[in-house]
Every structure is written in C-alpha cells, then in structure tokens.
C-alpha cells in the first residue's frame, strides 16, 4: 500500500517494485584500473527490492576510504576521479551520483558524454548548476565574496553553460539538474519577491528536458530557511520544476520542509542529504576532519533516514522518480548511508529497521 505521507493521493501509474540486473559497462572502460569490491549477497538481494524508480547514490565517487565498500583495492583520489565512475555504477545500490564539480567549473557536453558512457542505461545523474549562474555573489577560491554576480539566474547563461551541455552529453541519463542557490546576501533576502520573480523568469525560459531526457527534472535547492515558503512552491509549480529537499544544517529539519513538497505534489523527489545537523550551518570542515577517511558511519541519523524513506516510498509508489544523493558528511560514510536508506525504503510502512532504531 502506498505510504500516506501526502494523504490519499492516487498513483499516476503502477510503481515498479524491483530493480533489474545492472547492465555491463562498455568494453572501452573494462580495462580501467578500478574494480568494484565484492558485493555481499544481502546487498544484492536488497537492491532487487528497491523500487526501480528510486535512484539512490552518493555525492561524487572519488573517495579512497570507500575501499571494501565500493573499491576492490586502495587507489588514489586522482585515479578514482578519472576512472572510478564505471566501477561505482556497477554497484547494484548506486543508481545515481551528484556531479558537484560542475558548481565550480561548468563541464562541457563532451565531458558529460564521457560520464554517460561509463554508466548503465538505467543510471541517472544529479548535476549542480555552475556558480556562475546560481550564486548571487562572485567568490574567490576561499569562498569569500568579491561582489555581486551580474549573471545571477540569467536564463541565457543557464541554458548555454548548464542545460544545453547536460542535455547534449548526458541525454536520457539526466535525473535532476539542480540550481543550488548559495546563501544569499541580505540585499536579496530583504526583497524575496524580486528574487522569486527572477527565479520564475529563469525557470520559464529554460528548454524542456522531456524530448531528450523524459525522466529529467529541473530542481531548485535553497540554503536560506526563510525561502522555504508557499510562494516558492507556487513559482516552482508554475514552471513544472521540483524543490530539491536540502538536508543541511543551514536548513530546517526534513519534517519542516515537507509542507513545500506537499504543495508541489505530484512531483518527482529530488534530495541532497549534505551535512549532519550536529556540525552547524558552517560545519563542512568539522565534519570532514571528524569523518575522514569516510569508511564507517559515525553519526547515524535514523530519524532523518526514516522520514526520507517514507517520502521515497510515497513518491515511487505514485509512479514518480526519486533522485537522492548522500554526502559522506551526512553520517560519515555515504555508501553505508545509501545501504541503510535502501533498507529503510524496503521496510513495510510502519515498520522500523534495525538501523532506524539506532
């Protein structure tokens, strides 16, 4: 029975309840020096039970500390960055990945195509928009402001540097293209309607993903809690865009963000679980220093996991895709967080898994 998270909502189509076998990677990448670690039988069985429309995965794939979880042997970050995606995508639970590097420098269509060639046909990418169009500020290499960004939410720049390259390179393997609005300066937060008007112009001007990427969705993630409003939902709904559920210490807890998802229903789920709340709004470095080498869960968050699992079940149960990426800084080891979330998703509604009970 479909979860009642959103109330009595009819399914738009029957939901698939099991994943098919992962496709083999192309022969061109079989010889690369990265091999998938042995996957335990229980994880393979779990992957078969995860709804086909649930695309779970991690933020990037370049971490040497995942040896034994994803990698068969110890390898450098440089090798994993260049050659690890194919092995990562062979893991039966890893059906998406968040390409965060695009935030810092826009990738070309050919670079996206190289990624697409390394993954199975059913794999879907989550890609962050470049900061050149999604950040209201121009920042230096340390993240400090160098002034206002005149290209912030510019539709022409967004299409040229983000949407078109992703469509040309990733094609049908696009899951979610995410405009993450970095923390905004006070000037913007004091005039939210002006921000929403600019966002609406951007979203309505973008080309549709559907002709090339039928499963794809444009999503907006905010990093200012004051923007989680019904007015934002109205802008997104009018443009057929999704709200990216940002699980981050700068943002309200997951339960407080669910009303915005309900206001957008029916809509695909896009979620980026970024940072455990214990570290605070600026706690990335603290989390990294505590959790590195990211080889085991150190701060389990069973409440967030259980709620997110209910949202995934409700979404996929209505025949809509769910795209969820998890950072190492959420609980300490993203691959293990994915496995725990998958286990929670596969539990009957109302049942708690051992990992959810803590």
TrEMBL record:
<dbReference type="Pfam" id="PF01904">
    <property type="entry name" value="DUF72"/>
</dbReference>
<dbReference type="InterPro" id="IPR036520">
    <property type="entry name" value="UPF0759_sf"/>
</dbReference>
<protein>
    <submittedName>
        <fullName>DUF72 domain-containing protein</fullName>
    </submittedName>
</protein>
<dbReference type="InterPro" id="IPR002763">
    <property type="entry name" value="DUF72"/>
</dbReference>
């Amino acid at each position: 029975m479909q979860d009642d998270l959103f109330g009595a909502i009819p399914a738009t189509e029957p939901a698939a309840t099991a994943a098919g076998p992962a496709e083999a990677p192309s022969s061109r990448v079989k010889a690369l020096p990265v091999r998938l670690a042995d996957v335990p039988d229980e994880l393979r069985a779990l992957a078969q039970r995860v709804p086909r429309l649930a695309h779970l995965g991690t933020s990037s794939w370049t971490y040497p500390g995942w040896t034994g979880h994803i990698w068969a042997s110890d390898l450098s970050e440089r090798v994993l960055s260049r050659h690890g995606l194919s092995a990562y995508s062979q893991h039966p639970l890893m059906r998406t990945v968040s390409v965060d590097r695009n935030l810092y420098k826009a990738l070309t269509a050919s670079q996206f195509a190289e990624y697409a060639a390394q993954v199975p046909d059913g794999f879907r990418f989550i890609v962050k928009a470049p900061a050149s169009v999604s950040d209201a500020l121009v920042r230096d290499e340390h993240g400090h402001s160098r002034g206002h960004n005149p290209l912030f939410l510019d539709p022409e720049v967004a299409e040229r540097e983000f949407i078109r390259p992703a469509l040309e390179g990733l094609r049908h393997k696009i899951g979610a293209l995410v405009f993450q609005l970095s923390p905004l300066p006070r000037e913007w937060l004091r005039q939210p309607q002006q921000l929403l008007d600019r966002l609406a112009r951007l979203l309505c001007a973008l080309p549709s993903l559907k002709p090339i990427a039928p499963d794809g969705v444009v999503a907006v993630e905010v990093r200012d809690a004051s923007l989680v409003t019904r007015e934002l939902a109205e802008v997104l709904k009018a443009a057929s865009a999704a709200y990216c559920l940002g699980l981050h210490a700068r943002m309200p807890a997951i339960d407080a963000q669910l009303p915005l998802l309900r206001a957008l229903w029916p809509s695909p789920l896009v979620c980026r679980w970024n940072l455990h709340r214990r570290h605070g709004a600026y706690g990335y470095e603290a989390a990294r220093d505590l959790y590195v080498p990211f080889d085991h869960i150190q701060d389990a968050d069973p409440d967030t996991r259980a709620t997110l699992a209910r949202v995934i079940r409700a979404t996929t149960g209505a025949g809509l895709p769910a795209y969820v990426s998890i950072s190492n800084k959420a609980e300490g080891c993203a691959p293990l967080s994915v496995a725990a979330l998958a286990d929670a998703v596969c539990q009957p509604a109302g049942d708690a898994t051992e990992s959810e009970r803590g």
